[in-house]
Amino acid sequence: MSAPEGPTFRELAVQALSSVQHGYDLLAPKFDHTGYRTPASVLDSVTGALRGLGPFGSGLDVCCGTGAGMGVLRQVCRERITGVDFSAGMLAEGRARTPVAPDAPRTDWVRADVRALPFGPVFDLAVSFGAFGHFLPRELPGLFAQVHSVLRPGGTFAFPIGAPARPGSRHYWELLAFDTAMRVRNALWRPRFVMYYRTFRLAEVREELLRAGFEVELRALEELGRRADGSPRCRLVVATRPV
User: Fold this and answer.
1) Within-domain flag for 217
2) What's this model's pTM, rounded to 2 decimal places?
3) Is there a domain that residue 211 lies in?
4) CA 82 to chain centre
C-alpha cells in the first residue's frame, strides 16, 4: 500500500495501536506516500464536477489531512479556503506544502474536532475526501449537522463515494477482513482506532443528509468509469443547504 518512501510495517503497526489522532500525527510525514491518500484521478474528477457548480467564494475541507482536498478547493474557490483536522501533524504537513501564489485564495489551517466545528455559517462549499471511515454510523447525524451549520444558505457539501465491492469479489473479502480485524483490535485494545471501510453506505448516507436538512443530488463521475452493469464506479454526492 505504500511507496518506498512510505512508512514501514513497524511504523504502521505502531500507528494502528495508537488513537486515531496520535496515529495520524505519527503517520503525517509519510502519509502522502501511502495508499490512504485520495488518488489524483478522484481529485481531478471532483474538481471538474465542482467547476460546473461554482465558482464558490469560500471553501472548507472537512478532515483535511495533509491537504489533498485543499488542492481541489484552491481551484474552485475565489476568496478563502480552510482546512480543518484534529491531527496537528497532518496540519503541519499540509501547511508546509501549501503553494505560494499571488492569485491564490487565502488559506487557513485549523485544528479542531469536526464534530464541533468552530465556525459560523461562512462557507459556500465544504468537501471531504476519504475520512468518513473514521466515524461510527451513529456519529454521522452529528457530523452532517455540523457541516450544515457552517454553510451559508445555498451552500454545498460535496464528496465522492465509490460503488460497493461486489459480494464474493476479492476486494469484498479484503475489505471484510480489514473491518473484522479492526473490530477485534478495538474490542481488545485501548485506545480505539476507528477506521472502517464498509460502514459508509450510500443509501444510509443520503438518508442522514436529508435528515440534517440538506437537499441531495448524486452525480456520476464519468471519468472514473462504469462497472460491467453500467453503474458508475464513483459518484459525487452533492448536498445543498436550502436557501
Assistant:
1) yes
2) 0.93
3) yes
4) 14
